[in-house]
From TrEMBL:
Single Gene Ontology MF annotation: protein-N-terminal-alanine acetyltransferase activity
Species in which this protein is naturally found: Rhizopogon vinicolor AM-OR11-026
Superkingdom, taxonomy of origin: Eukaryota
Protein name per the record: N-acetyltransferase domain-containing protein
Pfam families: Acetyltransf_3
InterPro entries the record matches: Acyl_CoA_acyltransferase, GNAT_dom, Ribosomal_N-acetyltransferase
Domain N-acetyltransferase: 30-186
Amino acid sequence: SIMSRLEITTSTAAYNVNFCFPLRELESDRVKLVPFIPDLHADLYLQGSAAHPELYDFTSFGPFSDVSDFVQQLIHGPMGSNTAVLYAIIDKTRISPSSSSKLTSANFAGIIGFINTSPVHSSTEISPVFTLPPFQRTHVTTNAIGLLLQYALDLPPHGLGLRRVQWKANRLNTKSISAAQKLGFKLEAISRWARVLPASKAIASNDGRLREGDPRPDTVGMDRAELALCWDDWESEGARVLQAMDRRS
């Protein structure tokens, strides 16, 4: 197949080989997720995201100045532990039989991952989710999230059989919250002042407010929406997710 000829094999050192669950490529009719390999994928991600600093308006990290900065901030940061894994998102619909079979900026659609994964507590969290602008408002994000939900919540041997998948977002990031709710995630809480952000992220903060004498005056704070989709939700919501993945308009 076209996809089998793509230069995306995991034999060249995916950074996260110590992830606490087996690494697996995940695939639907239109999207494929492969474990992120910095040497293959980091430059493609930077090519697609460098002109769009707004991708990081609601995050504690980014934008990235170059590949080294990206690897240092994200790969060696929150994605660097054995409880996290990062995937490259490939849009299969943008690969034609007549075109080159190489992974390129024309079909590299973004990154998505699991963090805070706990085999002991049978839970994980979907983060980060960065769909590059040319692929936004298409099938890509829904399929990428759906693939992770299937892998996490379906019973073995097809899935991990986890009990809980979390989704956390800046309270002001209504697009992220809405995307999760459309796939069946339920809002459980708003955690106030949950994260410290750089002062440059004031747009995503509690109006930039800090009390007088705060020991970190060079920062702002954010409230965080916390949502979850659990195994018992999945029994009823799984069909909805599959329908959303198959939707053609």
